Amino acid sequence: MEDQNIGTPAESETLVNYCVPRPEDKVRMTLGRSPHIIAAFLTLVTLAALARQPGTRFLRLAILPFAVILTLRLTYGFVWWDFPLNGISFLAGAYSILMIMKVLQLGLSPNGILKLGEKVPGEITVPASDLVVRDPPKRAARAPGSLTLVEHFLSGIGWEFGSGTKIQIPPETRDVSDTSKFLRQTYQSAVIHFLYVDLIDVFISLVPGIGTPDGGSIFVFGQNTVERYLISALLHFITSLSLIYKLHFGYDFLTMIGVGLIGQHPTSWPPVISTTVITSTSMHSFWARDWHQLFRQTFLTLGGYPFQAIFGSSGLLWGTFLASGVLHVWGLYVTGRGTDWDSVIYFGLQPLALIAERAWYRVTKRRVGGFFGWIWAWLWVQVFGQFLTNSWHRRGFSGGIFVPPALSPTRLLLLPKVLPYIQPILQRYFTPTA
Question: Considering the entire predicted model, what is its pTM?
Answer without folding.
Answer: 0.80
